[in-house]
Amino acid sequence: MRLISICNKIIEYSFYALFLFVPLIFTNITSELFELNKIWLTWGLTILVACAWFTKMALTRTFKIQRTPFDIPLFIFLVSQLISTIFSLDTRVSFWGYYSRFNGGFLSLFSYIFLYFAFVSNLEKRHALRIIYISLIAGMAVVLWGLPSHFGHDLTCLIFRGTYNVSCWTDAFRPTIRAFSSLGQPAWLAAYLALLIPLSTALLLSVVPIKKIPFKTVLLISLIVFSAGFVVFAASSASVLFYILSICIAILVISLLFYKNRQDNDRFSALIATAWGIVSSLFYLMLIFANTRAGIIGFWAGNIFFWVVLFFQKYISRSTLIRYAIGLNSIFLLISFIFGTTVAQLDKYTLPELLKKKPQSLNTQQKQTPANQPSENILITDSGKIRLYVWQGAIDAWKANPIFGTGVETFAFAYYKHRPAGHNLTSEWDYLYNKAHNEYLNYLTTTGIVGLGSYILFIATFLFLVIKNICIKSEKSTTLPLRDNLLSMALVAGFITILITNFFGFSVVIINLYFFFIPLLYIFLREAIPQKYLLIPFGKDKKYAANDIGPYQWTFIALFVITGFYLLLLLLRFYQADVAYALGYNFNRAGEVQQAYLKLTEAVKMRPSEPVFKDEYAVNLATLGSALIQNNQATAGAQLIQQAISLSDEITTNHPNNVVYWKSRVRIFYLLSQLDPQYLKEALRSIEKAHELAPTDAKISYNLGVIAGQNNQLQKAVNILTQTIKMKPNYRDAYFARGLFYYQLATDSTGKVTNPSYYEKAVSDLRHILQYIDKNDQTVIKTLESWGEKINF
């Protein structure tokens, strides 16, 4: 039937698009450049697949799902996420996911599992192989896009700003130090490349083993790549030349492994092997440029597993395997020696460190500079130390909600209730953490022991199947093509890299796709899919020609198509609303409140159910209303202020556990208190609620103390700020505020000192800033001088 064929093509090419474009897509017009666009594309393709699959079911009059060895673990996992969503601290966040990512919310997890069953129920082994090849093509595109940025020439900046450099990125993004390409973050890029390298290596090995290839071919390939390097990077710096030279050396080393005069078909096979070797080397080079320890550790763990298993499985003769293993891994080690390892203990033996003292060194990596170090010379806390604080808070939050957790994707709320006070002493003390930076602890905190247990059950089921296949060779496995055996082991190696990178970080859209699809691709390649189906026929068991489609079938088909079209329109409208929100948000930060008002109004109208939009809109309304009143437009200003208060009331009522919304409410009422001091009371109540949700957040504690003092509760303000200083002893603003409140307690309305003890404490706090924090703090110096104190340096 032609309609069924069309449905099959839609399903097939939707999956191809999924693995090809998700790693690549990003744009600068949305509120988040990378992950939001990737999840929207994933949802859009999921809708297409669902529409085509359901239409196909209607045409065949059979509800049919292919059974797999992972059905029960996946079902248990999905149910655990649903229960956690229902009993969540914030059901909306649990369903959609945390705004700015959405990945990890119930809807995204449901989409991944739905796509899993759609693939296995409609496609075949040949499609699984194509997905692997498409994945490698996408990986090469990611590498080629990101490589120039390491040398200061970012294609993203060229497209978005028209400047072929890295000036479009802030200090939080340093692609010359830590590359991220189209993935958006170095750790995500590293995790993605780490799982792809074993696949390209397996395809190298799948070519008929050839010892050597003609030297002319080696020379030709080297010249082509050398010339292409000049074209791609368009630069004359020594670092770029050094990079090109190192790639040519890698090509030469691979090629020499196979050097021998053979016939043309052997030469062609050798060229294919060489090409896959180049791909593997480029992947590893970019992995080094990502400068992420978790990615390197994950890759080498998966890589060692891959070679060890192949050694014992004897898919290839051991002598040939050892030659390939030594040759390819020598290239990886050579790249590490030239560009660094990301491991400080090993980096001292690499070329960048050895040449660091030479003024004309070709060293380009500069590993001694932390990736997130801003222009100012400030101390950056080691990421490992920060993770330990986050992990401790995650465990404490889980202990308070052990069974089903706090709710899917509610880590941002759960963590701040149990945040270790020591986190305030790190360089990321005021960052908002919405992930545990450990996928397993993240599941434990947000979905409890049930959620984490079901997640591990899926992993364990897959690994058990792999171990069983390795230990017990079936007759089928011995008859599989060499390529399929190698790729299946490479998939397992890639899965191991995900398990390790997820331990030190968290998954994103593309990693979650591979997490759920690698076991599926594995059983496709191993031909281990059982001939079992979940079948629910709802019509006669016969084939229908196109003109035999009944009215009920057409009704269902029309329903599926209309529903799919409607959902795609909703998704498009969501995208357009976010674009408007992004502009409004940026206008607000730039002080262009009128332009922000227009865009935020547009965003809220297009998506009135989104509290993130309303929260920013409420702040904008309060700011604009205050400005109008100050410009003698009292009526219009009062209306906007009332609208802002109503929106804030609605948001905090519907989402009482979201500390971000309470902080926005504080901003609103503190701003309004400049017009009417009575609003300070509501600002105080709001900051007290925020402090209740985040009792160890030093910044919230500081603001609570300041607002309490401005409400004439001076002694309470001093006590709160004292607690703030205990949490963060180097908090300049807390010392300064406490000093001012001590001074108010020490003096009368004329400025005369009536309480010398408090006055000494006030002076002591300000002198502490000059002595231990910033001796050139002009605000502190002028304040002390206004009190009649002498400044001695």
Walk me through what this model shows.
- It is a single chain.
- This protein has 793 residues and is mainly alpha-helical.
- Helices cover 69% and strands 1% of the residues.
- The protein has 32 helices and 2 strands.
- Strands 1-2 form a two-stranded antiparallel ribbon.
- Helix 8 runs parallel beside helix 12 (293-313).
- The model is unreliable at 210-216, 226-239, 249-264 and 359-378 (pLDDT under 50).
What summary fits the major beta sheet? 2 strands, antiparallel
> Which structural class matches the secondary elements?
mainly alpha
Q: What portion of residues belong to β-strands?
A: under 5%
Strand order within the widest beta sheet: 1-2
Task: Summarize the SSE layout with pairings.
Elements: H1 2-21, H2 35-60, E1 62-66, H3 71-86, H4 91-96, H5 106-122, H6 125-150, H7 155-161, H8 186-206, H9 215-233, H10 238-256, H11 264-290, H12 293-313, H13 318-339, H14 344-347, H15 351-354, H16 383-400, H17 411-417, H18 439-471, H19 475-479, H20 482-504, H21 509-525, E2 533-537, H22 551-589, H23 593-606, H24 611-630, H25 634-654, H26 659-672, H27 679-693, H28 698-710, H29 714-727, H30 732-746, H31 756-773, H32 778-786
Antiparallel strand pairs: 1-2
Brief characterization of the structure:
The chain has 32 helices and 2 strands. The protein is mainly α and 793 residues long.
